[in-house]
């Protein structure tokens, strides 16, 4: 049987079921088996690995995951795809499709039930582009015990996730993800491998969980408040942003100046120039006055 992801087989499947794409659900299906192989290679799957997929579509990537991983659990929001998946994935007995909005699902609990024997979990997906960041943040924040994430997303978001300090892409998203994960862009993907073609360029990113968070902070929630506040207005100085954004920041300007001095950070610098270590020092110095 030909791969689902060949252009001819994809067209045949879509025609057989009279399927029409829903742009609002970010439905851009992959039609290039080589790209799928590169994705599964990047995820370094083995039969001892479990794979969690978000948005299987008609099963193009799911099929490659089923061939290389021990078990696949895939969350699909669009009910119209369920009978199609039952058909296209019928040769594989190690796939479980869950009809749920991944943003509403109790992913941690489902994963615990579904992967009793496999402790080597990877999230692998061609994400729906309208919700890439909320999906990644949900997976990170809800304690789903995966080792890493290999996902296709907009190149612009991939650039922000893996950005280093001092670049225009570096911001609170880079920090939120790099705090937990080592992030790198694995490869860039041309628009031509999708049906229909998206309007933006795409990339595959690889995130691997760090054994410990990248920096030590006294309070994680406050650390993220400080990083978000520092980028609220990118052209403003760190002092300006913190004064305007932190609760009672204006009244507590002296405490902010004191904390900046304690953390050895010039108040006239911009957020984008601070490393994770500097943000951690700053958040820890500010915490007694704002925590
Ligand atoms: N994996 C397929 C492929 O690569 O050809 C399809 C990828 S397509 C970019 C995104 C898929 O995510 C679609 O099947 C869409 O219906 C599904 N989807 C969109 N929003 C979702 C959500 N909130 N929860 C679960 N699936 C979602």
TrEMBL record:
It catalyses: adenosine(1518)/adenosine(1519) in 16S rRNA + 4 S-adenosyl-L-methionine = N(6)-dimethyladenosine(1518)/N(6)-dimethyladenosine(1519) in 16S rRNA + 4 S-adenosyl-L-homocysteine + 4 H(+). Coiled coil: none annotated. The keyword ATP-binding does not apply. Belongs to the class I-like SAM-binding methyltransferase superfamily. rRNA adenine N(6)-methyltransferase family. RsmA subfamily. SUPFAM superfamilies: S-adenosyl-L-methionine-dependent methyltransferases. It comes from the Bacteria. Transmembrane segments: none annotated. S-adenosyl-L-methionine binds at residues 28, 30, 55, 76, 101, 126. Residues 35-211 form the Ribosomal RNA adenine methylase transferase N-terminal domain. Specifically dimethylates two adjacent adenosines (A1518 and A1519) in the loop of a conserved hairpin near the 3'-end of 16S rRNA in the 30S particle. May play a critical role in biogenesis of 30S subunits. It is found in: Cytoplasm. One of its GO terms (molecular function) is RNA binding. Keywords: Cytoplasm, Methyltransferase, RNA-binding, rRNA processing, S-adenosyl-L-methionine, Transferase. It is an enzyme of class 2 (transferase). Its main location: cytoplasm. This is Ribosomal RNA small subunit methyltransferase A. Its EC number is 2.1.1.182. One of its GO terms (cellular component) is cytosol.
């Amino acid at each position: 049987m030909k791969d689902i992801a060949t252009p001819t087989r994809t067209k045949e499947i879509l025609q057989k079921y009279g399927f029409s794409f829903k742009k609002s659900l970010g439905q851009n299906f992959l039609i290039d088996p080589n790209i799928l192989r590169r994705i599964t290679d990047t995820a370094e799957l083995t039969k001892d690995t479990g794979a969690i997929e978000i948005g299987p579509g008609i099963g193009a990537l799911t099929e490659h995951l089923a061939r290389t991983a021990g078990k696949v659990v895939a969350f699909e929001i669009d009910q119209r795809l369920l009978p199609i998946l039952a058909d296209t994935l019928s040769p594989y007995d190690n796939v479980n499709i869950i009809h749920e909005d991944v943003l509403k699902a109790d992913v941690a609990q489902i994963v615990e039930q579904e992967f009793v024997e496999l402790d080597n979990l990877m999230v692998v997906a061609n994400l729906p582009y309208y919700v890439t960041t909320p999906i990644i943040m949900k997976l990170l924040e809800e304690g789903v015990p995966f080792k890493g994430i290999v996902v296709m997303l907009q190149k612009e978001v991939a650039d922000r996730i893996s950005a280093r300090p001092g670049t225009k892409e570096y911001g609170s998203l880079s920090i939120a993800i790099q705090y937990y994960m080592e992030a790198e862009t694995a490869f860039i993907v041309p628009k031509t491998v999708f049906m229909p073609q998206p309007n933006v360029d795409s990339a595959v990113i690889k995130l691997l969980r760090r054994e410990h968070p990248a920096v030590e902070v006294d309070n994680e929630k406050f650390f993220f408040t400080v990083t978000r506040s520092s980028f609220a207005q990118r052209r403003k100085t760190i002092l300006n942003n913190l004064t305007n954004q932190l609760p009672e920041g204006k009244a507590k300007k002296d405490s902010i100046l004191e904390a900046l001095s304690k953390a050895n950070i010039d108040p006239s610098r911009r957020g984008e120039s601070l490393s994770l270590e500097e943000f951690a020092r700053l958040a820890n110095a500010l915490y007694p006055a704002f925590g």
